[in-house]
Amino acid sequence: MKLTCTQDNFKKAIYNSERVVSKQNTLPILNNILFEGDKSGLRVSATNLEIGVTVKIGARVEKEGKITIPAKIISSFINNLPAGENITLETSDQSLKIKSGSARATIKGLSAEDFPLLPKKTANPILFIPGENLKNIITRVISCVAFNETRTELTGVNVVFGEKEIFFAATDGFRLSESIFALDDKNTNKEEYDLFRNKKDNVIIPAATLVELLRVIQSKEDSEVKITIEEGQIFFEADGTIIISRLINGKYPEYKHIMPKEYKTRVVGERSALQSAVKMASLFSGGKASEVALKISAEEKKMAVGAMSAEVGENSSELKLDVVGPSQEMVFNSKYLLDGLNTIATSKMTLLANNGSTAAALKEINEQTGEVLEGYTYIVMPIKN
Amino acid sequence: MKLTCTQDNFKKAIYNSERVVSKQNTLPILNNILFEGDKSGLRVSATNLEIGVTVKIGARVEKEGKITIPAKIISSFINNLPAGENITLETSDQSLKIKSGSARATIKGLSAEDFPLLPKKTANPILFIPGENLKNIITRVISCVAFNETRTELTGVNVVFGEKEIFFAATDGFRLSESIFALDDKNTNKEEYDLFRNKKDNVIIPAATLVELLRVIQSKEDSEVKITIEEGQIFFEADGTIIISRLINGKYPEYKHIMPKEYKTRVVGERSALQSAVKMASLFSGGKASEVALKISAEEKKMAVGAMSAEVGENSSELKLDVVGPSQEMVFNSKYLLDGLNTIATSKMTLLANNGSTAAALKEINEQTGEVLEGYTYIVMPIKN
Fold first, then answer.
1. pLDDT over 90 at B110, yes or no
2. Mean predicted confidence (pLDDT) in A258-286
3. B103–A284: do the CB atoms touch at under 8 Å?
4. B140 and B220 part of one domain
5. Is the ipTM of this complex over 0.95?
6. Do A330 and A218 share a structural domain?
7. How far is A122 from chain B (nearest CA, A)?
């Protein structure tokens, strides 16, 4: 292999692929990145056998070929190259020679023949989702994924393919987040989407895959993620990078049942004020569940947030806010309440509740119109007294 | 005690004192901050028995008194208070009641009687150093302090009081940094300074104390640090905060001997280019010392930076730069060379050397005039071949 490419393209390819390279791998070749040059350009790939990444970049290829070299070395190396100069790669025995400006390096590698084959996509994409939307959805729902869970289905995000919307949801059994993406004609390959969802209306995507996807999606207005699903695998394509991941087998819990259809009490206020009050109270909350009490007064249009413990002392704050419906008293695990408040992106939010022993919800508020935004819901269970 | 103060002042007092509170202390009272209200205002103090901090702030004191409460609780608590409102503190039994806006807390504490007495300053300051200057000096020399060292004198910064300048130096036996502060009339209490330095011309200040001082010095043009030394203690006063620390006993090594008086070869170039080249080479350098070779060619006005190892491969970069004097070949521990380059604040730097087996120096270059700045020197020993 002998080829030349720009430093920017090469850096992007390394940046997008190096993270999936596992840190402590018993199989040395999995610490390496695969470089393949052919007439279509340079393909840079990495895998940890769960997730694979392939980045295609343009290159002037003088001689086709391939090699693998350690991700750690090439990544640190290119981060210290003087900016601007093109990069020339040339294989020589089991090594890769790199030249850029006055810098030269020969990095010892391993044969590309021993690198695991990444699954090849054969079907067409069924979904086309703008990068920014997908980023917002993932960032929110991922907060509720269970890590190190014996129920592997809870370590992923459940995606349900509806006719006019897609539901992304995650839960660890204590709280639940659901984000809805409304489909229009641009977002699907209609015929293949319907064919797919008639066979199977949901998939469970590993959280680790979505975390990688977040890194790859560029913050450009026109970036778009193409999604293809086939035989237990999902393919995300964004800006020349392909992420390939297995899907999680198993049946996702019927979470819709625990989402109340309606709420008696609706409180609307500033997110940051509630966040601060809950954080303060959590310092004083005793017990394993770090309990924080909310008292909503319908008459006085206010909410008291408080906690006490025998060791630390006690605390309370009062927040002025809009209250519709009856007064309520509820106790929450402060961590779960804070995690939820952290996922609210608007400065105003609403807390919806029925009583102190059934699920409550957090939702966003449109800052211009004051309307409740129904696209995102964070459900948290109170602690029963 | 009952008093009211502004939230900003209170936050500053907690911020400046909380850090010295030791994290895992067997003596519970050392996890606490001492609050003392009297007619002069509020004094907030903390100590880990090595370093003490006292911050004085203005307060409207209705009733004098004192108490100690856990640093961790009060610090997190005030970080979540709604901004702007004043703070009222009131002791009640062994607790401190805090009110600010609609927030209330009662934090359990321990009696102020059990808090260790901080040494009181009786002498006058001998030195007045502008905050920015002291900050720059500390930031540079501290990189060479030895941590976890059996020779305790090397865990501090040596300060030598000359007639017209003060020398700050640190070394861990492998490299050395020295920063010189030129005194003018404003900087000393002349008579007391001379009296002091006639008795004792140096002190060794613990590095941990200087790290605290860095936090306390505000980035204001007119900030000034007053320094008082008496009986094995040093006092730093800056913007209402006093840091009290023991000095290190022991004899500091005669480091001036290892600083060459002159250098045969002088290289001048861009700091960042040399940093990148050394970082790149360090990826390829084998052996415990992470060896990087510099080859300075006087004829070609360039320097080659390179390394090789049997496992990783090899690397070299060439830098164009000004060379005065004979060619040189030297091998350095890449970490020590990089640590030195990181302390150079100017974009151009000079490397000064005599041969491959005696100390080399890094210095800063005035970016306007191109002159060598003599105020700061980083000395690094080459690895003998």
1. yes
2. 95
3. no
4. yes
5. no
6. no
7. 38
Give first-to-last CA distance, chain A, whole Å: 69
Domain co-membership, A272 together with A361: yes
- Domains held by chain B: number: 3
Any B CB within 8 A of A85 CB? no
Residue B43 located in a structural domain:
yes
Query: Is residue B89 domain-shared with residue B133, that is, in the same domain?
Result: no
- Rounded average pLDDT over A69-75: 96
Quick one: angle between helices A207-216 and A7-18, nearest 10? 170
Could you say which of A108, A273, A280 has the minimum Cβ distance to residue B312? A108
Report the relative pairing of strands A95-100 and A87-92 from DSSP bridges.
antiparallel
Closest-approach residue (CA) in chain A for B275:
A80
How many whole angstroms separate alpha carbon B78 and alpha carbon B92? 19
**Inter-chain contacts counted by CB atoms under 8 A, chains A and B:** 92
Closest CA to B86 of B58, B127, B109: B58
Q: Which residues of A touch B106 (CB under 8 A)?
A: 313-315
Identify which of A197, A218, A204, A182 has the alpha carbon closest to the alpha carbon of residue A55. Answer: A218
What burial class does residue A86 get, using C-beta atoms within 10 Å of its C-beta: 0-12 exposed, 13-18 middle, 19+ buried? Answer: middle
Of A200, A233, A255, the residue that ends a domain is: A255
Q: What are the pLDDT digits (tens) for A153-171?
A: 999 999 999 999 999 999 9
Structural domain for B96, as ranges:
2-114
**A298 in any annotated domain:** yes
The reply to whether A385 falls in a domain is no
**Looking at the complex, does the CB of residue A211 fall below 8 Å from at least one CB of chain B?**
no
Contact call for residues A157 and A234 (beta carbons, < 8 A): no
Instruction: Establish if B208 belongs to a structural domain.
Output: yes
Percent of chain B with pLDDT over 70: 99
A104 touches chain B (CB under 8 A): yes
Q: Which of A25-34, B175-184, B320-329 has the lowest mean pLDDT?
A: A25-34
**Nearest-by-CA chain B residue for A302:** B102
Does B277 lie in the same domain as B237? no
Chain A residues closer than 8 Å to B319 by CB: 102
User: Does B191 touch chain A if contact means CB atoms closer than 8 Å?
Assistant: no
Amino acid at position B242, single letter: I
* Nearest CA-CA distance, residue B263 and chain A, Å: 28
Q: What is the CATH number of the domain that holds A132?
A: 3.10.150.10
**B197, B220, B255: which is the final residue of a domain?**
B255
